Amino acid sequence: NRAVDYFQKAFSEDPGNAEIAGSLAYIYHYRLRNLGKARDYYNKAIALGSKNPENYYSRALIFRDLIMISD
Predict the structure, then answer these.
(1) Distance CA 30, CA 55 (A)
(2) For the whole prediction, is pTM greater than 0.85?
(3) 53-68 exposure pattern, b = at least 16 Cβ within 10 A, e = fewer
(4) Cα end-to-end span (Å), the chain
């Protein structure tokens, strides 16, 4: 996926950028449906101080979905 490649390159050059981490999380979550990687990048975005409420909301959705899958 070209978008993932682009954002991963950007994040490797600026690993403290919460917005890039959030963008990667969004792509993995909503485009690629990779919940594990999405969760990891949401966690990174939040740990880096993201003020975007979408990161928190989407991470909660992933936890909900993972619980539903395990039931």
Answers:
(1) 12
(2) yes
(3) eebeebbeebeeeeee
(4) 31
